Amino acid sequence: MSKEIRQLEPKAVWNKFADLNAVPRPSKKEERVIEFMLDFGKSLGFETFKDDVGNVIIRKPATKGFEKRKMVTLQSHLDMVHQKNNDTVFDFDTQGIEMFIAGDWVKAKGTTLGADNGMGVATIMALLESTAIAHPALEALFTIDEETGMTGAMGLKGGVLKGDILLNLDTEEDDEIDIGCAGGIDVTAKRNYKERSKPMGAVAFEIKVKGLTGGHSGMDIHKGLGNANKLMNRILYLGSEKYKLSISEINGGSLRNAIPRESVAIVCLKKANVEDFQKDFELWANAIKAEKLGTEPNMVISLSEAEKPKSVMNFKTQASLLKSLYTAHNGVYTMSAAIDGLVETSNNVARVKVGAGKIHIGCLTRSSVDSSKIDLSNALIAAFELAGCKVSLSGDYPGWNPNPDSAILEVLKAQYKTVFKEEPKVVACHAGLECGILGQNYPDLDMISYGPTIKGAHSPDERVSISSVQKFWKFTLDILENIPE
Description:
Blueprint: H1 2-6, H2 11-21, H3 31-43, E1 47-50, E2 56-60, E3 72-77, E4 99-102, E5 105-108, H4 115-129, E6 138-143, H5 151-155, E7 165-168, E8 176-181, E9 183-192, E10 195-197, E11 202-210, H6 228-243, E12 246-252, E13 263-270, H7 274-291, E14 300-305, E15 311-313, H8 315-327, E16 331-335, E17 343-355, E18 358-367, H9 370-386, E19 390-397, H10 407-420, E20 425-429, H11 435-441, E21 446-449, E22 454-455, E23 463-465, H12 466-481
Parallel strand pairs: 3-6, 3-7, 7-21, 8-20
Antiparallel strand pairs: 1-2, 2-6, 4-5, 5-23, 9-18, 9-19, 10-15, 11-13, 11-14, 12-13, 12-17, 16-17, 17-18, 22-23
Helix pairs in contact: 2-4, 6-7, 6-8, 8-9
GO molecular function, one term: metal ion binding
Catalytic activity: Hydrolysis of dipeptides, preferentially hydrophobic dipeptides including prolyl amino acids
Keywords: Cobalt, Hydrolase, Metal-binding, Metalloprotease, Protease, Zinc
């Protein structure tokens, strides 16, 4: 299918995207894509190097007549979120992404597409390779590990970059210009517990919550989408309270920055309670599906008999776990008082793994206000510590404070209006962009973020608009032509 993709316009961008998507590039395992990018830069004869943590920098001189313009740093991240449908057979460590065209969209077969942030990477590669595009001196910064900790941006030392202006190509609405973003922190709760033997004569069931939309835990958190971990916990709580069902295993969600789409639990209950439990389960499932019909039309909540497990949780631990997960806030916590319609603070209960005497809960808390981020993380700490968990905080990264007086913002606003005959939306986003981190070591770097329209990022429904990529490419070329001296 990559042959079809390579025929799309602008071919320079889509060919580089196809090349990039042939290289496995999971977060924390970027060795192959780093070498791919180093080879690319060196093949063009440009200054190309890797910094101490694995970020790749490539510099291209200005074209004739643009030597006096300010140097532009073009920045995108090399890694991608790896998510696939439960029934999709795919190895992200060894296979390239399988793409196809559906109307105005490019999608992947049952997996994430990697348009986040592969479209930005491909665009920068096309600019570096071109011999016909007018531009000032360019500095390409390809960071690593943006999706699971932003350690590439955090590890970039001061003094490495030479640019005056930074264009971050990592947002997902082509009529928006971003000037700020949320920071984030990982909240992880763990504990061990004593198991007990399964009840005598008990019947085992497998409960599944699947078919949810999923998506980006920042950009999509306000949409009222279902969280498989929270929905599963609701069912388990009701079953535990009324029928004293016993939990053997829970396995829900995966990545912290993806809204959980699936959860599976193995439970046991007394044979005498089975018929009533099945009836109530259907009522509970139907009620949840009715509540979420507008946002989760494909949700499935199923119950089927399973092989009896060897052991289950003790009732005391089970009760405290279910109550703490019920208490743990998920979704929007506060809206911004400064920017209309902007989510200020949120949490994603991203991962719940229970079994073999161990509990692991992973959350990602985001906020554009540091004190609010601390407030919500403290609330989560309190909930999980009451359940006997040891809670740790990690991966703390800052937000990007908006600068409405940015000089490069004025350039983008003016050029957008000139090219597209309408005003752009100047916004801040609830996602984590690397600009806030980069600004710590490069406080004088004038930064802006924009990108093509991408839907369903961080889920197998991820797709990028073909016409939007054309718009994005045209806008980028126009920006580079109008960079000031």
